[in-house]
Structure prediction request, 363 residues.
Amino acid sequence: MLSHEPYWWQAAPPRALPQQPLSPRTDVAIVGAGYTGLSAALTLARAGRTVQAFDRMRPGEGASSRNGGIASGSLRPSYKEMIKTFGEARAKAIQAEAIAARAWLSDFIATEKLACDFALTGRFTGASNAEDYDALARDAELMNKAFGLDIQPVPRREQHAVLGTGFYHGGVIRSDIGGLHPAKLHAELLRIALAAGVTVHGETRVAGIRADGDGFEVETARGRVRAAHVITGTNGYTDQADRWLRRRLVPVRSRIIATVPLSDNLMRQLMPRGVMCSETRKLHYYYRPSPDGQRILFGGRDGTIAGDPQWPTDHLRQALIDIFPELDGVELAHSWFGHVAISISSPSSTAWNWRTAGSDTWP
Prediction:
């Protein structure tokens, strides 16, 4: 039977935390106890600050445990497009920050000994046509030269060694991108944040934030807290508690499906290198093997805004079969959706609408 809970929750379901006393004063109040909120909380607590983090759901129940687990830190525009839009110096600085973020995450997981199935598998980006392949290959050359990366073009004739499909016109593979188990990562981050002294209030909605003298008054479902500083880390789950941020973000649904376990032979045929995958289509899909190598997880845009209708699942299933015809008739075990935030471009800004999370990282 198809489950509408994330596949990731089988191994690491979000948990309800014991209710902690609400301190009326704190150095920092953080709205959202997902990756962003807990990472900030951990850093501040280890620096000696008192920190209270609030989440209206169970911590991690939103984007942090619903995403695809592709640790890419990628930017949607190509490096060439960014140079054209922003100039070489700024484009290089933006790309350098994304590369540093990947390296930091890998080091953080290793240093903190976080058990989250992280592996530098590499990522294959498939070209939807011959022109896209040429553009990917040229951009790979630019990126390799500018940053010393190892991005390798994969011609169509060699594609099956990386991905068992003839759907694409070749692509490129990056060795510095990997995959992880997102719910396990959040559970581990929560563990070390609590150990560092962070107070996490789950299922405690923040109703409003008001500047008050040299600090802020934070109105929560369990009472008021006065904080010297406030951090909002709510991504696509931002509500009217932070009206300034809410006016600047559009929550968009995205969905992931997961197959039932497949045979070892079929998985080796379809995903011989076990890489993370994306593509160049404008309304593109992203997909990957599960960490245990037994399933394929496949994600993309969900065009609905309410309820949980069947057609987005059917749409993703057909897109998966288009790429891997061998999966026609294979059952799905999970189909779930979540929200990602897209920023609203101001009239004076460029035409880019930048995601607050990589499009292949979050459903």
Observations:
- Helices lie at 35-46, 79-86, 88-112, 130-147, 182-195, 243-246, 264-270, 311-323.
- The mean pLDDT is 93.
